[in-house]
């Protein structure tokens, strides 16, 4: 009886004090910090098939989820934090697609209900954005596979996302050199990331598909 009362008291305390558990500490096999600076925080995420993760928290930041492989549905169970007591299933994902979402203080457990792993990048934006425009999903256009192409897929006063497909390394270097804003480069095939300064050659990049997440110049209000 005393044990049950103690567990109930602990649960009430966690709910009343804003219970948080750092994702990197709770599940280091699933979450790995890949890149961080004063504009962006990138986490590499891997949920193994049928893996279940203990309760952990994520901060309230606008986020771009870049899906690196085809994946199955994943169940997120929320019990604490701003999301309240609820469960939500993320539908199956397609490689090369990404989802844009507003962030909120979120605490949940994770249940990958698929025979497939779930691999994606969690790109947290540290600058202020317009909540009315920061949303949506974008998918890879099969027509562009195997040819050089550049397509602006998302564009607001704060953030621009460009999908670049290049069949030769020189074409990739040319795309990086034309940048006029600080940019996060994401290789959609491997999940590798790099931070590029304006008009930077960005080093040698192999042929492939990339997302260029540009942080437009001007006054930027930093988020915590």
Describe the structure in your own words.
With 224 residues, the chain is mostly beta strands. The protein has helices spanning 2-16, 23-26, 169-177, and strands spanning 31-36, 40-47, 52-58, 63-67, 74-81, 86-90, 98-101, 106-112, 118-125, 136-138, 149-155, 159-166, 183-187, 193-196, 208-215. It folds into two domains: 19-125, Jelly Rolls, CATH 2.60.120; 141-215. The strands form three sheets. A six-stranded antiparallel beta sheet has the order 1-2-9-4-7-10, with no helix packed on it. A hairpin with a 3-residue loop joins strand 11 and strand 12 (159-166).
Helix/strand/pairing category: mainly beta
- Total number of domains: 2
The helix count comes to 3
Query: Proportion of β residues?
Result: 35-45%
Strand runs, count: 15
